[in-house]
Automatic annotation (TrEMBL):
Positions with a binding annotation for oxalate: 109, 114, 119
Protein name: Germin-like protein
Binding positions for Mn(2+) per the UniProt entry: 112, 114, 119, 159
UniProt key word Transferase: no
CC per GO annotation: apoplast
Originating organism: Momordica charantia (Bitter gourd)
InterPro entries membership: Cupin_1, Germin, Germin_Mn-BS, RmlC-like_jellyroll, RmlC_Cupin_sf
Length: 220
């Protein structure tokens, strides 16, 4: 009987420790990096944002207006209107954000990643060819979505949306971070500051340096 009680006590202790460890993990990063400093007066960025005095909070802190406005398409024929902690302060610490995606006919939201968020997309109007690529092996999962269809892009994976209809398309996306971040692959590779070495890019893409230089000029 004593052994049973002892075993039960050990089990409960292990269970409590496990629960504590599960609930005591570091928060997910909300920016690309957060370098530790010893002097708080030198602090500029934090993982998240400082909190407003609750006595000064009002309804406007939880309000955003403008998602009814059609975005002006860029040179790829798409526009993304983001609603994140940058323009809706009440999202701070809530771990969610939103975006409106407008597409001109045959417009593209080019391959990109959200380093800090999973994305769920719902098509409101039109037809979109969407897909994402896994890490290793690089397998493509793709689908044509129509009005009312939903698709999920797992966190951090390269994904895209292409309007395959003859008219404009509209979609809304929810993201599992107040500041999901976005890395557009071609822009990051060919338009970084400073530029990535030609030696690196010619070897990586296995093309002549003139091809790389041509691609770099497209993003100037």
């Amino acid at each position: 009987m004593e052994n049973i009680k002892f075993s039960s006590a050990i089990f409960l202790l292990v269970l409590q420790t496990t629960i504590f460890l599960v609930s005591a993990y570091d928060p997910s990063p909300l920016q690309d990096f957060c370098v530790a400093i010893d002097e708080p007066k030198s602090a500029v960025f934090v993982n998240g944002k400082f909190c407003k005095d609750p006595n000064h909070v009002n309804a406007d802190d939880f309000f955003f207006s403008g998602l009814d406005v059609v975005g002006e398409p860029n040179k790829q024929g798409s526009n993304v209107t983001q609603v994140n902690v940058g323009n809706l302060k009440g999202l701070n610490t809530l771990g969610i954000s939103l975006a409106r995606l407008d597409f001109a006919p045959y417009g593209l939201n080019p391959p990109h990643t959200h380093p800090r968020a999973t994305e769920i997309l719902v098509v409101i109007e039109g037809s979109l060819h969407v897909g994402f690529v896994t890490s290793n092996p690089n397998k493509l999962f793709t689908k044509v979505l129509n009005k009312g269809d939903v698709f999920v892009f797992p966190i951090g994976l390269i994904h895209f949306q292409l309007n395959v209809g003859h008219g404009p398309a509209l979609a809304f996306a929810g993201l599992s971070s107040q500041n999901a971040g976005v890395i557009t692959i071609a822009d990051a590779v060919f338009n970084s500051d400073p530029m990535i070495s030609l030696d690196v890019l010619t070897k990586a893409f296995q093309v002549d340096k003139n091809v790389i230089q041509y691609l770099q000029k497209q993003f100037k």
